[in-house]
């Protein structure tokens, strides 16, 4: 059996973790005592915690059908397919750089605009043109709602799941009314996007997208409409948020490491020069820039931990995993494994220059970013206080305290027209 802990102790522990600590850090600490995979029990709910990349691969990759329902063709999201959307990425990255050039203090808003623009166009073929796009605003509402609903032990029903069977009008059942509001908002968002693509297909004006592929290029009835609708909506409600997190962490990391910024500038100037911006084709020739982004993703992974659900009973290395167990995948611990990454808390891009790229350990195999062009155009440094001393934000904060300015007077000329 996977090691089980006392129910009462676990309940108290998770309550403290959720409200006072980063849960992924505490789960990682428990792995030191109980191993790379262990189980907890929150009242009657079994929870399996995975802290090892090896275990994650063997369980969730090899047996993905047991732990994740991904009905759309997985090839649609492979790197080889994502490369087909390079024009989309280029457009939105250049829009982001233009916005950053004009309004550097609003950098976090620009980050969200970038990630939403890319993911919405890939998922639904919808091009975000305005910085205050109403569709994106609704997507952001869904992201916030999901974060609130997913916070461990945030509602009494998390402790007592049987309460979900009681009527919503009873006192203390506010969580049911809130859940109904969240569901209504998310369904409306998903349905609107789906109708939009269908209408564009009917007119013959649909842009390439995952929704278009699923609707127009699959055999009739192969994928039910609701499956297509909700799967593609998750691309931008989930993917956009993680992309925003990664790019915000990129700014924070460079803010705290001026020597990294300097070395990155030197590599770009040497390989690309100052007459154009880096492109995807330059990636292989910019190893240090790639190392910066890989290290950002390792030190501050955009998803610290990810919950899955066991769809049926399973056995892993002789350990029984019950159906309906929550499976918590602790990516933070995987990226801070000191046996793989010596001095794991330190930000050291150079570690990737000496490591052979291994898909089992390379943090960017499933992440793409726009860090090359940001460094090509801008200097990133701390804001100064009234005494001229740099203000270094806390590790947890990236919204403020940053000075972003063009590296030279002619960088705006490097951008194509009609951006923003």
TrEMBL record:
Gene3D superfamilies: Cytochrome P450. It is found in: Membrane. GO terms for cellular component: membrane. It comes from Dichomitus squalens. This is Cytochrome P450. Its cofactor is heme. Keywords: Heme, Iron, Membrane, Metal-binding, Monooxygenase, Oxidoreductase, Transmembrane, Transmembrane helix. It holds the Pfam family p450. Belongs to the cytochrome P450 family. It comes from the Eukaryota. It is a single-pass membrane protein. The keyword Cell membrane does not apply. Pathway: Secondary metabolite biosynthesis. GO terms for molecular function: heme binding; iron ion binding; monooxygenase activity; oxidoreductase activity, acting on paired donors, with incorporation or reduction of molecular oxygen.
